[in-house]
Design goal:
mainly alpha, homodimer, 3-stranded antiparallel sheet, DNA-binding
Amino acid sequence: MDAELDADRRLIDRASTVELLAAALRERIIKGVYLPGERLVEETIVKSFKVSRNSLREAFRLLTHERLLVHELNRGVFVRKLTVADVVDVYRVRKLVECNAVRSLAGRPRQADDMAEAVAAGDRAKEDGDWLALGTANMMFHQAVASLAESPRVDELMRNVFAELRLVFHTVADPRRLHEPYLDRNKEILAAIEAGDGPGAERLLLKYLEDSEHRIVEAYRSA
Amino acid sequence: MDAELDADRRLIDRASTVELLAAALRERIIKGVYLPGERLVEETIVKSFKVSRNSLREAFRLLTHERLLVHELNRGVFVRKLTVADVVDVYRVRKLVECNAVRSLAGRPRQADDMAEAVAAGDRAKEDGDWLALGTANMMFHQAVASLAESPRVDELMRNVFAELRLVFHTVADPRRLHEPYLDRNKEILAAIEAGDGPGAERLLLKYLEDSEHRIVEAYRSA
DNA sequence: GCATATTTGTCCGTATGTATA
DNA sequence: CTATACATACGGACAAATATG
């Protein structure tokens, strides 16, 4: 495990142990190795990564701020478990940001390439039957949509929001039902964006988001 | 200094040393005790607050995430110094969030009380000639506007954005010129909101934000 | 409810690496 | 190039809170 960190350290010269550790933990959370609600015990992780407790605690603090972990005083850290209210709020933010991003659209934006790439990645994932990868491709697409706003702060906000949303994937039972229907709809949205049709894209996008929210909340209540 | 922390710790029983320390540092940054660009040396602060380096480093990380500090690897932390690009991006976010918040307005919202209070605080500050307090009141007003979105995540985003913006106040020379003209305009915006006139409020707000941005960028370039 | 074991919260000493005068 | 100041990282220690039997 620690060999992994060392390799990264050599590759990216300027990265601290804390950041590398946080990246490794983030990956495990996103991939579902650590599941929502699970407690992360300091000593166990310290041993498996061969880092000091202080470094681990700083990495925890980083991920807590990204809302991937929750910290309970004197009890430790747990993988975040989103409530229905959280999901609703995440979609509130998505509607605000994504719809605004496409609203004032004129001409083919640079981000269209990123979107096309995300769609292609989704197609590949579907063929492979890799539903987690399909979910990832879907988020990549919408991250690209959000980046139409051309704002670093909005980008960061959405990176966090999408990371949060991935926590849901590990809680609901059937990821296929969750992601598959949206591949084609992303293609429609992309077509509208490439045509420079802002209002049309916004209409499709809003409906997409409402359907997606409804489906997740439904699946979530029964879980 | 440490007596201060201890008093707070007794009051709010369930607060960690790190959070109390972060709050104390945040206050000093916002009040301009630590100025933009200034380096915060670990040992000095450890001594003055009588906390451990570990606690201080965690507090630093918290404030770095709030964008009040910047962290340079192996060089330490500095009070953030906003660039013109940062200011422009902050206003991009403000336009996105604040304008959307008032756009779909129906009836008198709960937050109108908060806005009215902020306006009153602004009036008092103006009488006292306390321009820093006037700036604070102005931010309180617009934080209340943003909270029309009724989203915890948007609220947090805007709290950070406004905290960043306060860093500018300590860099430009004349805070009075920066804040005073906007008291009356806030009153106009509030009136439109109280009347349930969403589009009218949005028009006033957008113009306010554009003027404010222009003025700050101008003052900023010459500083 | 009580006593014990476990885990976190905090602090310290030290060794190493990095930036800069 | 050297010296100095500082950040980075580690491991140990003890107190405090929590979980467990």
